[in-house]
Amino acid sequence: QVQLVESGGGLVQPGGSLRLSCAASGSIFSGHAMNWYRQAPGKQREFVASITSGGITNYRDSVKGRFTISRDNAKNTVYLQMNSLKPEDTAVYYCYSVVYWGQGTQVTVSS
User: Can you tell me the distance from the alpha carbon of 64 to that of 76, in angstroms, rounded to the nearest whole number?
Assistant: First the structure.
């Protein structure tokens, strides 16, 4: 069964940090790019970051320098380290690969 399972979301104050994890089935991790998207209330889902199987990364402009995507191929897991969080980062964060989506994890940045 193909699965993407996110974890690590929560409530954090502005300027704080969180690390999201996405554990993937081996069949959709090996050799494929892994992506993070997010969707804020009332807004469309948007791309956040991606990492290829070879480790090449890409970010949306608004998170460059604050977010870091990485992957552990031995654990079939992709991470999103989020630093200097802002209220506008509040959203449900989703892991995506190939054609599969995870269930999402809520990130709330508020004082």
Answer: 24
